[in-house]
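During the second year of the project, the team shifted from modelling isolated chains to modelling whole assemblies. The rationale, set out in the original proposal, was that interfaces cannot be judged from single-chain predictions alone. As a representative example for this report, we include one of the complexes processed in the last quarter. Its constituent sequences, exactly as entered into the pipeline, are reproduced here:
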Amino acid sequence: MSTANLEPTVNAHAAHAAEHEEEDHRMFGFIVFLLSESVIFFSFFVGYIVYKLNADSWLPAGFEGLEVREPLINTIVLVSSSFVIYFAERYLHKENLWGFRAFWLLTMAMGSFFLYGQAVEWMGLPFGFTDGLFGGTFYLLTGFHGLHVLTGVLLQGVMLGRSFIPNNYQGGEYGVAATSIFWHFVDVIWIILFLLIYIWR
Amino acid sequence: MSNASLDVSVVGRGQPQPGAPDNWKRFFSFSTDHKVIGIQYIVTAFFFFLIGGLLAMVMRGELITPEADLVDRTVYNGLFTMHGTIMLFMWTFPVLNGFANYVVPLQIGARDMAFPRLNAAAFWLVPVFGVILIASFFVPGGPSQSGWWAYPPLSLQNPSGNLINGQSLWLLAVALSGVSSIMGAVNIVTTIFRMRAPGMGWFRMPAYCWTVLAAQLIQLFGLPALTAGAVMLLFDLSVGTSFFNPELGGDPVLYQHFFWFYSHPAVYVIILPVFGFFSEIFPVFARKPLFGYKVVAVSSFVITALSAVVWVHHMFASGTPGWMRMIFMFSTLMISVPTGIKVFAWVATIWGGKLRLDTPMLFALGGLVMWVFAGITGIMLGAAPFDIHVNNTYFVVGHFHYVLYGSVTMGIFAATYFWFPKMTGRMYYEGLGKLHFVLTFVGANLNFFPMHPLGLQGMPRRVASYDPEFAFWNVLASIGGFILGVSVLPFILNLLSSWVQGKPAPDNPWRAIGLEWLVSSPPPHENFGEIPVVVSGPYGYGMDEPLVENLAAVASGE
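Output from the structure prediction step:
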């Protein structure tokens, strides 16, 4: 019985090792996760809208409203980086590693520029996290989004490092694709956030 | 199959058979086998179930007399808060995740979950946030006292003045529980979408898998709302922001929206897999196909969709405007349609069947009866005029205990007895199982039925003392509670002793149809010798048709 079983068992083992190779569910799972994550942002947005619509006095006393010029520059940089990262991915698919690294690094630079601009803006504001509902929601939304941008830049750093492992990125790579999708997600969230906080008066 | 374990050692395929009593150390390791993780979830959750039950025993002891004499009132507040939190976040969610982990890959013909390491990580968060929650008993000021809803402004009170207090630990534990649940949900949804065996189309999938998928989708869209609310509440509590603090212009009702947008659908996250248990067990023990299988399967998704638009029925008395009450009353009553379809289908399945009253069937039948009762009081509570009358009384407490003990916990017991032979390779003792059922059914009804007349007479919930006119029903409820406390003893004795020295279980002790019953008990590592090729639907009782094409290779195991 045991010798008779040996042969098919070994074959089955080899066969299902092949199954593991071809089945990659990570991208599906990651997108499911991102959809779920977006509900947290959506909840914060709903909170912001409800507070703003019901507020008697929305802005902190003596504060005229947020400056739009610098955040707009920031927005343009962040949204453009979504296109840059797309080109980086294209280069990877063409197996041009240095092209990938150049555009990937440019994306990281643009993301870092966004974070720097965000920090500068925070420093210059006359109100804090605990100054009423406006202060609370402003820092909550920009902070939570900034945390995602930071995560994205760190992930990009990891993927850049991994590109130097020989033969690691032949014909595309899951980590790069997932980081790229995450980056687009962060961008789309920022556009909604920018419209809600800076444009909607 | 008797030398299945021999083959493992011959071929050297790594892990020994999970579930076998001689390798219990595997259950304390970072195993990535879905069957080990499933049992880890179930046993851990049951441990917390006992803790939550002990808290309930103390509460029933307090309530057996009208005066607040057994424990201090603030202690009582902590008891009901922690009882509710533990029972929901540390018993029902983890134990049902455990069953999903164990059963779903077997039922859909997969070798494991889609992300085994993520699976293990999600499980190991459970003891972590469990310890955090229990630790809140020992910080200055004691555990959270604001109920399991943690409504502000009550939950914003921090008498101890410490940064680490009962409420902040509670929020941390709930947030971690959310992280664990999202990890689990991503995993289960991906597994069911992507890893079904060849031929396992959507309408060949067992109804249990449908309900698990429907429940996990709710986790994905609902849980982040609670996370958002919990984060804001934590900032209010620890940093001094004003989101929900009315003294600083915040909006406490917005927290209620965030909380119930998740926590009402959470009830369906809990009850849907239990519906799945019923749908699996009734056909097996009535020897008939599940009546209206496709409709039953799809009705789970109707519940998922409706669950997103009913949450305000918890807030009829929160200053909610009349038009909103009307809309949410209507959507709430709509829920009774898909659930009614299921009840109808189960009754039609049993009807005229050749019933075998083994323990799983007894628990499933008991759970069904109590579910119908809970459904009737649920419809009453869904009607805004009635709800406002009994709001925050024991009527509500009675209703949801019929749901959460009467159907959910009874259903979990049914599933435990049903799959115990498969998980351990041993049969449990039928006599002890039946004793467990009788004690549970009598105890649950004696405990939770009196809460309904109490509520109608106006006894408020969450109080340590009450008017002597309520004494009669409270004494009955307490006696029922103590019977429930005793009822777990034969259960523990039964499962522990039969796991160690029970009669070996055959591969298919119930003569059930399903992929999990084609393999050995317990199933071999990676489940199937060859991935099954499914050729017929899941409930072919009395039809004499093969379930899979490659039976011998599937069952060959390793």
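The radius of gyration of chain B is 23 Å. Chain B has 17 helices and no strands.
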